[in-house]
Amino acid sequence: MREWQGTAEALTKELKRQIKYLKISIESPALRTIRSWRAKQLLSQPKGQEFGFRQILEGLATILLLKKGWTLAAIAQVLPSFGEDVLERQIIAEAQGQDPTWLPAISATSLPLPTGHRPAMDLAEDAVVLLAQGIIRQYERVLPGKQIVRQEDSTLPPELYQAMCKLGRLYIEEGQSDRAACVHTVLDNARYPLAFDRWGLKIFNQSDFRFSNATIIDPDLRVPTSDCAEIANLSRGFGENNVIEHRLYTELCDATERLGGRRRHKAYTALRELFGRYSLIGQRQLFDHLVDNDLTPLQGIIIEKFFDLVPDIWLIDGLAHRCAYCGTLMRPHPNNNLFAQGRCPIRQCIGHELPKVSETLDPNKDILRIAKPQILMYWTGPAIDELAIFDIAGQNKLNTELYPESDLCDIAINERAIGIDAKSYTSPVTLALRLNRSIGGLIYYHRRILAVSDRLIEDNPSYISTLKSTLDKKGDPTSLEIMSVSSVIEFLKKMPYANQT
């Protein structure tokens, strides 16, 4: 068996034989499934070679882990960490009903041992990167609703476990008790900027610590932030497919691509605008929007993938309160004196601090739906600035397009003449790190403008200067014009006059 080699079809037959031999109560995968697993790199078949014993083990492990509720992305991350002998023992243990842990062995070098050769700053940054990765991994596990967060080393993502170890070492080296031993405490603290007293680590407040302003989990929506995604991707071992924003974008593109041709770009823009303007919507209004934008073929996917029913617990006196500034659903808040009518959960919205209700909706008169938390986090919040810029451009009769060609940029002016991207990263450093990696679709525009939220600049007056200082001094990042959103709006207001001269 250890010398076995064969094609995808032969592997399909061999897996079926091994499942029967091991008496495992699982279904044998079809040939098409085997090919899909190979494409997703679950099966480490060397290029140009046949499948071997290693792929038999990987196939059996994949089937077993899928039965336990794992996602394919999680399985793809864990399988390469096992040698063939360990992988074989894990499979046999599963077949014998021993329920083994599938946590990869953590090397001693990753534990908080007093090696003394690494500066504390490097250790702190490593801890934060691992924390961001671990939180995304943990979020993916609990998202389907089949798992919960447990204080057990065997069930925690290895990245999160390692982050807790390194954070614990930082506390101890600063003469404090270990405040990172409980995963629930760490996740709660992650809702606050790293420099806050909540963390209580002096090193996070040092001027040369890159991530001081970063918040890893959104405090209200409880989902990983854009900062979290960017920090997580600093490590080459962390794939882009595991970033939540990327997954949402992929699902949206998969849906709109079914319409084909230019129609898919129009559909993409219509849906993104829907999430930005009408994240709280009655079902009749939603269906009308789909009809008006020729999106009825996607009706089922849109409702299932991107919207939830408004839960009763978010109603106030039996009604849904719409935020006057961004249009989303305001949530009940413990501070009834300040937020008697609810509070907007979107941090980019002024209603987050200064609540105002535009209208109340009765769930007895229409089925009410709210965009999923991830949509609110990654699209609805940033759309506040994006739509403000787009609307001003339209009012000034500029040739403008929103989310052109399925999101090359946020706003295009005069086709490829000007591309504008609005950004709302709380940390200018993490934004710069992303732009250093790629400026995205702005590369296709003659003039490339980056618009930074005015609220971020109010909170951090040095935001733009910090961003510019962290950007690479050569290559594509040097072509970016960085302005506040209000400056971009003023620039667009003057454009028609400039065109006349």
What does this structure look like?
The chain is of the alpha+beta class. It is 45% helix and 9% strand. The protein is built from 19 helices and twelve strands. The strands form four sheets. It has a five-stranded mixed beta sheet. Strands 3-7-4 form a three-stranded antiparallel beta sheet. The protein has a two-stranded antiparallel ribbon with strand order 1-2. The longest helix has 23 residues, at 120-142. Residues 105-118 and 238-243 have low confidence and may be disordered.
Question: What are the defining features of this structure?
Answer:
19 helices; 501 residues; globular; single chain; alpha+beta; three-stranded antiparallel sheet; 12 strands
Average pLDDT, all residues: 85
Largest sheet: 5 strands, mixed
Shape descriptor reads globular
Instruction: Kindly estimate the percentage of residues that lie in beta strands according to DSSP.
Output: 5-15%
Distance between the termini: 79 Å
Percent helix among the residues? Answer: 40-55%
Q: Which residue ranges are poorly predicted, with pLDDT under 50 across at least 5 consecutive positions?
A: 105-118, 238-243
Q: What structural class do helix, strand and pairing data support?
A: alpha+beta
Radius of gyration: 25 Å
Q: How many individual helices?
A: 19
- Strand elements, count: 12
